[in-house]
Design brief:
Length: 65
């Protein structure tokens, strides 16, 4: 498999995990503030990784990131 395809699939996995963490943080906001903050922190770290991957493909119109 090409490196581009590997990065695209990795991006998709990270994105789905990011969305799960954001939803979890939102749902826990009223009941457990510490766990909500932890989920949000992990989501922000994933968002940083996602932005790094998008930066790599900024000039490549063939990718669908």
């Amino acid at each position: 498999m090409k490196k581009v395809n590997l990065l695209e699939s990795h991006h998709q996995k990270l994105n789905s995990r990011y969305l799960q963490l954001i939803e979890q943080a939102y749902n826990l906001r009223e009941t457990d503030h510490a766990l909500s903050d932890d989920s949000e922190f992990k989501a922000l770290k994933l968002l940083h990784k996602l932005n790094k991957i998008k930066f790599l493909f900024r000039d490549n119109p063939q990718t669908t990131l």
